[in-house]
Specification:
The chain is mainly α. The protein has twelve helices and no strands.
């Protein structure tokens, strides 16, 4: 794979020594772990560039997409869950439950293709692929301060580019946010209904406290903690779910990089992304646990 199918035996032997493949497996494993700790994650077979450099250069594109999708999930999913719990058993509740079911059931790649067909091809809305229009490089070039184009264009006052970048974000962000919106709405609804049956809620109603105050100051506050766990796990899902979405929309982030690595059997890149994904899961779960302890005094840090 590294040298191609017509490599000579002498070249193969040279590369084996260069990569340490002539050593016993335990020695190879220890060498690999040591290189990972030092920041040497190997070189991509496809691009011949260091894997860690490839990951860091593409990370802002993926994180921008994930953050927008996560914002949509919280901003849309939480109110839908509250509305569904407040109007339990009524028509709005049924509508929200159907929306949630569709969101968590529909595959991301299918939804992405459907949105491309309906919103772009049929209605001519938004944009099909990539993060921005290529003509902006000549008319309104983006100063890449952080790699987060929405932030970079807003900070530099490049509003033409900002509008274009935001328009390119709509379809992939909606595609990626569909599952977490449904999940957050369902979890918020379930926890809200459970909390609304607690004795202190009944006591508050007996004292004549308004239903709106009870809903948002008592019920929602106590329902946030379990919902936060789902949001944290959903964020971890978005990092992996973005792979399909990025490939469909040719986004150019980690998802595109990983998909290309799998198609080309680029094992160093695959290993690097596996390590990055596993580390991301661990960090996200740790942050969620700490946030739960901060929000809920009943949870104690030990």
């Amino acid at each position: 794979l590294y040298l191609g199918p017509r490599a000579r035996p002498a070249e193969i032997e040279r590369v084996n020594k260069q990569l340490g493949l002539d050593k016993p497996l335990p020695a190879q494993y220890l060498d690999y772990v040591g290189d990972v700790v030092r920041g040497d994650w190997g070189d991509s077979i496809s691009s011949k560039q260091p894997v860690l450099d490839e990951i860091t250069s593409r990370l802002p594109a993926t994180m921008e997409l994930v953050m927008v999708a996560m914002l949509l999930a919280v901003v849309v999913g939480t109110p839908l869950g509250v509305l569904s719990a407040q109007l339990h058993g009524k028509l709005p509740d049924m509508v929200v439950r159907i929306i949630s079911l569709v969101g968590v059931s529909m595959p991301a790649f299918y939804l992405g293709l459907l949105l491309q067909l309906l919103l772009f091809h049929e209605l001519g809305l938004f944009f099909l692929t990539r993060r921005f229009d290529g003509t902006l490089r000549f008319t309104h070039p983006i100063d890449e301060l952080t790699g987060f184009y929405l932030f970079d264009t807003a900070v530099t006052g490049n509003w033409v580019a900002f509008k274009d970048v935001a328009g390119h974000l709509v379809l992939p962000a909606l595609t990626l946010a569909a599952y977490p919106i449904g999940l957050v709405a369902r979890m918020t609804r379930a926890t809200m209904l459970e909390v609304m049956e607690q004795n202190y809620i009944r006591t508050a109603r007996a004292y004549g406290i308004s239903e709106r105050f009870i809903l948002y100051n008592y019920a929602l506050r106590n329902a946030i903690v379990p919902t936060l766990t789902v949001i944290g796990l959903t964020l971890a899902y978005l990092l992996t779910g973005a792979f399909y979405v990025e490939y469909i929309f040719n986004w150019g982030g980690l998802g595109t990089f990983t998909t290309t690595a799998f198609l080309n059997l680029d094992y160093p890149a695959i290993m690097g992304m596996t390590l990055f994904g596993a580390g991301g899961y661990v960090i996200i779960n740790l942050v969620v646990d700490l946030a739960q302890a901060w929000l809920d005094p009943r949870i104690r840090l030990k």
